[in-house]
Amino acid sequence: MRIRSTGRSINGEPVLFYRRRSQQPTRKQRKDTKPQNGNHADLIKNLGALGLAPLDDRQVSQAVREVFPQGTAEVAPGELIRQVFLKLKCERDV
């Protein structure tokens, strides 16, 4: 108990209790899994669940390019689905 209260061992050396552990490596950030360059299978599935079926990859790719000419890298998945849905829905209603 004396060693614990004083922080010194019997031979006078400092003793550290509850020493911090070495820093563990940080987790690597997950790469974006959004479809790129014409591979829109998940987007087609989500749009189909919203009632826009049948759709093919060509139609969805064209709509994505028109709605997001700068690309979809900075777009949230929900916003991507919403904007493409509105674009395709408007085209079908005309």
Describe the protein.
The structure is a single chain. By secondary structure, the protein is mainly α. 45% of the residues lie in helices and 0% in strands. It has four helices and no strands. The longest helix has 17 residues, at 77-93. The chain is rod-shaped. It starts with a helix and ends with a helix. The relative contact order is 0.12. Residues 32-37 have low confidence and may be disordered.
What is the strand and helix layout of this fold?
Layout: H1 2-6, H2 41-49, H3 57-67, H4 77-93
The overall pLDDT average reads: 81
The portion of residues forming beta strands comes to: under 5%
Tell me the distance between the termini. 84 Å
Helix tally equals 4
SSE order: HHHH
What is the global morphology? Answer: rod-shaped
Helix content: 40-55%
By oligomeric state, this entry counts as single chain
In short:
It is built from four helices and no strands. It is mainly α.
List keywords for this structure.
single chain, 0% strand, 94 residues, rod-shaped, mainly alpha
